[in-house]
Design a protein that fits this description.
The protein has one domain. 85% of the residues lie in helices and 0% in strands. The chain is built from 3 helices and no strands. Helix 1 packs antiparallel against helix 2 and helix 1 runs parallel beside helix 3. The chain is elongated and about 45 Å long.
Length: 104
């Protein structure tokens, strides 16, 4: 893997992580797991921050293309990383639901 490909991968991972963070907050909120202890407000703030970071990264991509990076590769890495994170989040939130219900 060339240095440009490594950079595309890292930017894609960062972009995918920002997207996955927003999706995770939405999923946890929809499952009612954020309703206790002010957690919902804190995670909504984190979601907004992730959205801002995502927008800044996406604004940067056209400039990076002029430096030889591929927006298609970045997008591909982003989608792949986001999908992996969503799978992890689904497994984790399933355990949270199971744990929460078992404590009741």
């Amino acid at each position: 893997m060339t240095n440009l490909q490594k950079l595309e991968q890292k930017i894609g991972e960062a972009l995918g992580l920002e997207k996955a963070a927003q999706i995770a907050v939405e999923d946890l909120s929809a499952k009612g797991l954020l309703d206790e202890g002010g957690m919902k407000d804190k995670l909504q703030t984190m979601k907004r921050q992730a959205n801002n970071h995502e927008a800044k990264l996406e604004e940067l991509i056209p400039d990076l293309e002029s430096e030889g990076l591929s927006s298609e590769n970045i997008s591909s890495f982003s989608i792949s990383f986001c999908s992996k994170q969503q799978l992890f989040n689904n497994i984790y939130s399933s355990k949270l639901i199971w744990t929460k219900e078992s404590l009741v």
